[in-house]
Amino acid sequence: MDETYVKVQGRWCYLYRTIDREGNLIDARLSDTRDLTAAEAFFRSAWTVGGVIPDRITTDGHDAYPRAIRNVFGYWVMDRTHRYLNNHLEQDHRAVKRITRPMLGFKSFTAAYDTLVGIELLHMIKKRQFVVAEGDEGLTAAEQFYALAI
Question: What's the CA gap between 26 and 145, in Å, rounded?
Fold first, then answer.
């Protein structure tokens, strides 16, 4: 679990993202703040999307994360803060930053959210994490994207 910064209306907002050990995106959430409430909301959202309670979560060591993990999952989920364990997620941020950096920010929170959902969807299609329908596994990323419009 990690966050990256996105500029919305001239101020920095936080894009929380989490991936599983295979590199598949679990959930992403855009937030105004980087605090306990935002972290708890993100962990609840990721738990709802993933449907599984993890046995350990790797974070970057922010003060709010251990308390948020305890409040949402309880004491049986281990919080790991190791310098290099988050590298896969940091590299995964590149896909989002590569597209959003030239934009120089978003004019509204809604526009940022909608655009980031689209970026994440395209990134998932490109990484073969999203299949539109049964039998579409052999399609190219462009063909899968076109199948969404049909």
Answer: 20
For 21, 98, 119, 120, 141, the CA distances from 94, given in Å and listed in that order, are 18, 6, 11, 11, 19
Q: Which helix (H) or strand (E) holds 14?
A: strand 11-19
In this prediction, what percent of the chain has a pLDDT beyond 70? 97
Measured CA to CA in angstroms, residue 22 lies from 92, 125, 147 at distances of 12, 15, 25
Token readout for 56 is 């350990």
50 close to 22: Cβ distance less than 8 angstroms: no
Residue 103's domain is classified under what CATH number?
3.30.420.10
State how many domains the chain has.
1
In tens, the pLDDT along 20-59 reads 888 888 999 999 999 999 999 999 999 998 888 999 999 8
Would the pLDDT of 91 be above 90?
Answer: no
